[in-house]
Amino acid sequence: MSKYDFKIIEPKWQKKWEEQELYKAEDNSPKPKKYILDMFPYPSGSGLHVGHVESYTATDIYSRFMRLKGYNVLHPQGWDAFGLPAENYAIKTGIHPTETTKEAIKTFTKQINSLGFSYDWSREVNSSDPAYYKWTQWLFLLFYKNGLAYKKKAKVNWCESCQTVLANEQAEGGVCDRCGNKVIQKDLEQWFFKITDFIEDQVVDNNEVKGLLNGLSSVDWPDSTKAAQKNWIGRSEGSEIKFSVGGYEPGIKVFTTRVDTIFGCTYVVVAPEHPLLKELGKAIKNIDEVEAYVAATKKKTDLDRMEAKEKSGVELKGIKTVNPFNGNSVSVYVADYVLGSYGTGAVMAVPAHDERDFEFAKKYNLQIKESIISNKGSKTECYTDDGQLVDSGEFTGKSSAEARELMMQWLEKNLQGSRKVNYKLRDWLISRQRYWGAPIPIIYCEKCGEVPVPEKDLPVLLPTDVDFKPTGESPLMLSKTFHEVICPVCGIKAKRESDTMDTFVCSSWYYLRYADNLNDQEFASQSALKQWLPVDVYLGGAEHTVLHLLYARFFTKALQKFGLVDFNEPFLKLRHQGTILAEDGTKMSKSKGNVVNPDVIVEQYGADALRIYEMFMGPLEDAKPWNTKGIVGITRFLEKAWKLATEKTLTDCEVGVGQCNCAPVGLPQLLHKTIKKVTEDIEEFRFNTAISQMMIFVNFASKFDSLPKPAVEKFLKILSPFAPHMAEELWSLIGNNESIFLQKWPEYNGALIRDELVNLVVQINGKVRETIEVEAGITEEAAQKIALEQEKIKPWLENKEIIKVIFVPDKLINIVVK
RNA sequence: GCCGUGGUGGCGGAAUCGGUAUACGCGACAGACUUAAAAUCUGUUGAGGGCAACUUCGUGAGGGUUCGAGUCCCUCCCACGGCACCA
User: Fold this and answer.
1) Where are the alpha helices (DSSP H) in A94-168?
2) Element (H, E) at A783
C-alpha cells in the first residue's frame, strides 16, 4: 500500500511529461483548435506569486480539459521582459538588465514548472530578445509608413533637479521618485500611434474594420471590462457652436452636449492654451495679466491642479463674444478648468445648469441665468438634469431632448454650428526616454530629415556600452556605438532616435508571435495566423482592463486594415482572475511582509494541493483572502482520493458502471452527476463548485470497501486537470501504461443522472411543512393525494379551505389555504 | 460626482430557470482510537423558544409584486474597483 508522497511523484511526472512532449501544439492537425492564453508575466526579481498561480492554474485546467476533449490546444507562455524595474535595479547596482532578466526568467520557469503547468515551451517568446523586438520595430515601421505613427510636441513629466524625463509611474503624486522634487510638465517631441483612427468602424477595400467601440459587442468579455473601455474612450455627442468675436474672424468655437441650455449662457471660457490669446494679443486690454495667468498655469504641476479646489481665471478685458441664439454679448474668460486638449478648448458657461460654471460664476460674481426648470418641480441652486426650457425664445416650453434637436437644426440652417462627436481617448504616446525597451527604428539626417531604418537593418540593437548612473540624459544618447550612424538615404553622418518604445507596444502583438515564434522572415506566417488566431480564451489581471487590452485591440484592427490578419478582435473570450488578498483581507505587499510565496506552499503541501486550493477559494474573478489553514481541507480530499485507488478492492466490470452489480447503490448515479457537473463547471470557469462536487463523490465512495475500477478511472480522468500529478500516478498504479492525458474525457450517461426517487417538498402557503419521497415524474393528482395524507400536513388543513394548488414537477407542491 | 461590481453562518463560499437558504471546505464542540499528543474516524454546529414532537425569525435596510423572493421591481445604506474639471 503506497503512501501519497507528492515530493516524489510531482517531480517524477513533470520530468516524464516533458520527455513525452505531451503539450505540443500541432501546426498541422485535423483536430479543431483552441488557443488558450495567459497574459505573459513581467519576470520580476521577486519571483512568482500566488496570483500568477491562480491564473495559470485556471488556464491549465481548461487546457488539459480541452486536450482530453479532443482539441488541438495552443497553450504558450513567455516574458514581457522590458520595463522599468530592471532598469532601476541596474541604476542602483550596475548589473545590466539583460542579466537580471535572464536570472528572473530562470527562476520563473523553474517555479512555473514546479506547479505542473502544461505549457508548450517550444513556443516561448521574450519581448527583450532581438529576434522578438526586431518585429516590434518592423511593426512600428509598418505603422509609420501607413501614417499611424507620427511625431509631435507633447507634455511630458520633467524633473528640473534630475534634468530628465520621467515615466508616469515615476512621477506619481507629482513628485520625482528619485529626488523628491516636484515634477513639471514640459513640451518635448514625442512619438504617437494614431489609435483614435480606430475608435469608429471603417471600410477598407470592402473590408469592414470594426472600431474599438463597436467591436466590443462581438466579444465575450466581462461587462465591467467592456464598460471601462467605453468609459476610457469617452464618446460624447454634442454640438460645436460659433460665438463670434468682433475683429476676429474665427470667433470662439465651443463644444457642448447641452445646447438646450444656451439661453442661460452668461459668459464664455477659453483654455490657457487657446490660440486666440496669442492671436488677439494687444486687443486684449489686460494682456499682461492674462499672460501672467497663462504662465502660472503652465508651471502648475499635476499635483497643484489636483489640489486646487478653487477655480481661477481672468477676464479678457475689451473682448466680447456673441451668443448666436439671442445676440447677447457676453464676456470671455481664460481659466484652467477648461482643458486645451478636449473639444475646442473653449466652453460656453451656463452657471445655472453646470456645476463647474456655477462655482466659477459664484467666485467672480457673474450672472446666473436660469433656462431650464425641472419637470418634477424640484429646484436646486444648480440644476444639471434635463427639464423644460424657460426664457429661451422660440424654444421656451420644449423639453431638453426636443430642444436639442430643434436647436441643432437651427444652427445648421443658420451656419452657426454643427453636430460633433468628441472622445476622451487621445493618440497613444509610445516614446520613452529610457534604456530598457525596444529602440525606435528612426534616423535623423540633417539633409534627409526623419528616415526610417531600412527593413534589412533590423533589428536596431540595444547597445551594451551604456552607463546606468543617472546623468540626466537617456542612456542611449551617451552610447557612441548606438547614437552615431550613417544616413541610409544619403550616406552622411546622422543620428539615431534615442527613445525606446513603451513596453505596452511589445505586449500589443505577442499573442500573434506564439503562432510562429521562430519565424525570422515575418512576424508570423499567414498560415500560422490562420491556424491559431484569434485567441479563444484569454486570462489575466483586471489591472489590464483598459490599457493593454485596448492597445492590443488597436494593433489587431490596424493589421486587419493592412490585410495582415483576417480577424477583428484578438481575444474572443476574456476573464480576469481576482486578487488574492493576505489573510487579514488587505493587499499582499512586500513592505507589510504578508506575501505568500508559492514555493513554500509547494514544499509543504505539494503543487496539486496548492492548485486545487487556489481554485477552491471562491469564484475565479472575485478578490479572496488567503488562508493557509484552508489547504488542510484540500490535502484531506487528496488523501481520500488516493485511498480510493490504492486501498479499495477494484472490481473489473465489463458492462460499465451503472449496469453492473458490483457498484455500491447510488454510486453510478453520483459518478455521472459528478462528471456532468465538473464538465459544465470547467466550461464556465466555475472551478470552485467543480471541486465541491468531486469532494462529494470522494466522501461517498470512501464509505465502501470495493469499487468498480471503471468508476475510479472515470473519476481520475475528471480529477486530472486539477491534480495532474496525483491523477497520473494513480492512473499508472492501477495498471495503465499510457498517460492519463492521452485518454478521452468521460461522457456522462443521461439516463443515470435522472433520479428514480425524488424528494418532493410539501408547502402550505409557501412554507415548507414536509418533504415526501416519491417516484420521479409523479403526476399532480397523485402528488396531491399523497401530500394531503401526510400526518404533518393534516393539522394545517383543519378548518381551512383549499383555494389553490401549485405543482412544480419533481420539486414541490404548494397548497394554498384560507 | 460618474461608471461598474458586490453585501448570505464564527470564516471562505453554494443556491446561475422565482421553488427545501447555508452545498463543499475551514474553524469550533463532543465522542472513538491512543499511555499521551498528532493524524484519522463518527456526530453536532444560523438565531430564539420548547422536555419533546415541533415552532417562530432569518440572505445590508425599508417597501412592493407573487401561492412562493437571496433571486424580480422601487427607495436607501455600506464596501470594493475604475474614471474623474472631458463641458
Assistant:
1) 97-114, 130-145
2) helix A780-789
Assign residue A598 a region (left: φ > 0; alpha: ψ between -120 and 50; beta: otherwise): alpha
Give me the pLDDT at residue A786, please. Answer: 86
CA distances to A92, A93, A181, A183, A418 from A178, in Å = 11, 15, 8, 11, 49
A353 touches strand B (CB under 7 A): no
One-letter amino acid of A64: R
Q: Which nucleotide is nearest to A306 (CA to C1')?
A: B85
pLDDT at site A379: 47
Helices A724-733, A709-719: inter-axial angle, 10-degree rounding: 160
Alpha-carbon distance of A696 to A700, in angstroms, equals 6
Q: What is the pLDDT of residue A378?
A: 43
Query: Nearest CA to A383 among A258, A509, A245, A554?
Result: A258
Residues 219-278 of chain A in contact with strand B via CB under 7 angstroms? 223-224, 227-228, 231-232, 234, 236, 238, 255-258, 271
Q: Which nucleotide is nearest to A811 (CA to C1')?
A: B19
- Chain A residues 40 to 79 whose Cβ lies within 7 Å of strand B are none
| Cell 484540500, residue located | A634
| pLDDT score recorded for residue A377 | 47
Place of cell 512568482: A48
- Residue A80 main-chain phi, psi, to 5 deg: -90, 80
Distance of C1' in B63 from CA in A354, Å: 34
Distance of C1' in B76 from CA in A379, Å: 21
Measured CA to CA in angstroms, residue A153 lies from A169, A194, A298, A470 at distances of: 21, 15, 15, 25
Cβ of residue A624 near strand B, that is under 7 Å? yes
Q: What is the pLDDT of residue A767?
A: 84
Query: One-letter amino acid identity for A136?
Result: T
Go through chain A and tell me how many residues it has.
818
Provide, in whole angstroms, the distance separating residue A5's CA from nucleotide B28's C1': 30
So what's the pLDDT on residue A620?
94
Per-residue pLDDT at A454: 95
DSSP assignment string, A230-284 = HHHHT-EEEEEEEEEETTEEEEEEEEES-GGGGGG--EEEE-TT-THHHHHGGGS
CA dihedral A549, A553, A556, A561 (to 10 degrees): -160
Name residues 703-742 of chain A with a Cβ under 7 Å from nucleic strand B. Answer: 703
Using CA atoms, how far residue A117 sits from A10, A357, A390, A533, A607, in Å, is: 12, 57, 68, 22, 10
Residue A216 Cβ < 7 Å to strand B: no
pTM: 0.92
- Contacts of range A84-91, beta carbons closer than 8 Å, 24 or more positions apart: A84/A167, A84/A169, A84/A170, A84/A434, A84/A436, A85/A42, A85/A44, A85/A45, A86/A436, A87/A434, A87/A435, A87/A436, A87/A468, A89/A45, A90/A435, A90/A436, A90/A468, A91/A468, A91/A469, A91/A470
What span, in angstroms and rounded, lies between the C-alpha atoms of A72 and A808? Answer: 44
**Cis peptide bond prior to A459, omega within 30° of 0:** yes
Q: Each residue of A764-777: pLDDT tens digit?
A: 888 888 888 888 88
Determine the pLDDT at residue A12: 95
Amino acid A638 CA to nucleotide B16 C1' distance, rounded Å: 28
What number of other Cβ atoms are within 10 A of residue A695's Cβ? Answer: 19
Closest CA-bearing residue to C1' of B87: A256
| A241 CA to B84 C1' distance (Å) | 25
Measured from the CB, is A806 under 7 Å from any atom of strand B?
yes
CA–CA distance, A322 with A245 (Å, rounded to integer) = 7
Q: State which residues of chain A have pLDDT below 50.
A: 377-379
Q: What is the pLDDT of residues A369-398, one digit of tens each?
A: 989 887 554 445 788 888 889 999 999 999
What span, in angstroms and rounded, lies between the C-alpha atoms of A4 and A250? 82
